Amino acid sequence: MVTEFEKRVAEYFGSPYGVAVDSCTHGIELCLRLLKVQTIKVPVQTYISIPFLAKKLGIDLEWKEENWKDYYYLTDNVIDAAVLWREKSYIPNTFMTLSFQFQKHLSLGRGGMILTDNEEAAEDLKKMSHDGRHPDVPWREQNISMMGYHYYMTPETARLGLAKLEVAVKEEPRQWVLDDWPDLREMNVFKK
């Protein structure tokens, strides 16, 4: 079920690979961990969990003033595309993360996906999202060699995604605007 959902969403966006995860933020986190990123550049207006990742991962956070639309770059190749829904919009040589949170176009309540054209990275990200193991083999039967994070998408969420996908690809998505997010620098949590 999850593999079919990954395949169908990746095809829609024009990406060779899709790795389904439990949230867009966790998808970004996995990409940052995989790539051993030391600094992220975050727009002052975005979802609050993104700058929290810098603290969580012990990496540098740089704020940037950016009038972004649909997606933005956190690094040279990691893209937060949580509000993007457009056919064939995958950008080659990147890790684009999608959101299926309840307010997003493909509303599943929770979930996300990493789009990439890097086969080896897709395999590693899949393992990372499944506690460092290959998802099709019981973990007790594996000699796990990489750190994992229990960020996988459940088959139930993927089933819901497949059921809603046909309608989502036909409907016009909401166009998010910058003012949908406050200036995060004004929040006390970022003034410390």
Task: Describe the fold and architecture.
The chain is globular, with a radius of gyration of 16 Å. It has a five-stranded mixed sheet, with helices on both faces. The protein has a two-stranded parallel sheet with strand order 2-3. The mean pLDDT is 97. Helix 1 packs parallel to helix 5, helix 2 packs parallel to helix 3 and helix 2 crosses helix 4. Strand 4 and strand 5 form a beta hairpin. The relative contact order is 0.22. The protein is α/β, with parallel strands linked by helices. It has one domain: Type I PLP-dependent aspartate aminotransferase-like (Major domain) (Aspartate Aminotransferase, domain 2). It has five helices and seven strands, in the order H-E-H-E-H-E-E-E-E-E-H-H.
Question: Could you report the average pLDDT, rounded to the nearest whole number?
Answer: 97
Distance between the termini: 44 Å
- Main sheet: which strands, in order across? 1-7-6-5-4
CATH class assignment: Alpha Beta
- The geometry reads as globular
Give the amount of beta strand, in percent: 15-25%
**Helical segment count:** 5
As residue ranges, the low-confidence spans are: none
**CATH fold-level name:** Aspartate Aminotransferase, domain 2
Instruction: Indicate the CATH architecture.
Output: 3-Layer(aba) Sandwich
- Give the SSE string: HEHEHEEEEEHH
Helix content: 25-40%
Count of β-strands: 7
Which superfamily, in CATH terms, is the homologous superfamily?
A: Type I PLP-dependent aspartate aminotransferase-like (Major domain)
* Main beta-sheet strand count, sense and barrel state: 5 strands, mixed
Number of domains: 1
Supply the helix-strand structural class.
alpha/beta
Rg is 16 Å
